[in-house]
Model the fold of this input.
Amino acid sequence: MSFAVAIDGPAASGKGTISRAVADRFDLAHLDTGLLYRAVGARMLLGIEPVEAAETLTAGMLEDGDLRTPEVAQAASKVAAIPEVRAALVDFQRSFARRVGGAVLDGRDIGTVICPEAEVKLFVTASAEVRAKRRFAELTAKGLELTPGQVLADIRERDARDAGRADAPMVAAADAVLIDTSDLSIEEAVEAACRVVAARITG
Done:
């Protein structure tokens, strides 16, 4: 049986945490598609041409180095706006979505482009201010020296780029269930998502 859960949303909305929890709860495979673009972005920072970096990407490269730095995040957002990069990564993601046993994929365009026929579609969001606060705490915990203002500006810049790109912009699918995590705890957000998935499985 294949059963796909598509979870989209902006940076630091909580979609990654929710996706991993949903995958664990329902024993589904999980793919953070953002890591694909972060890996390509990281390789671009090393001097590799973006399209070549995408076409030669392997699963093992998703484990290379720290793909969670602000520099890599910005590079990922830039390479994600290149149509040829997105095309090179589409087949990998679609194959994963339809693997036997089911899968959860999180990213920016899973429910609209990668897997528009997914059995469940969620769009996880939160205010820019809340997301910046979360990301600031995450990055400073790693020892990075940033100001809250810098992180908020970075979040807003990424939002504008991801939503404004011509190819596969970040947007909620028409039939996606919206989950705003601005005022939710992690547990509440996870339970909200799991209720949607459980209803689809049993219904």
User: Anything to note?
Assistant: DSSP finds nine helices and five strands in the chain. Residues 4-192 form a domain with the Rossmann fold fold (CATH 3.40.50.300).
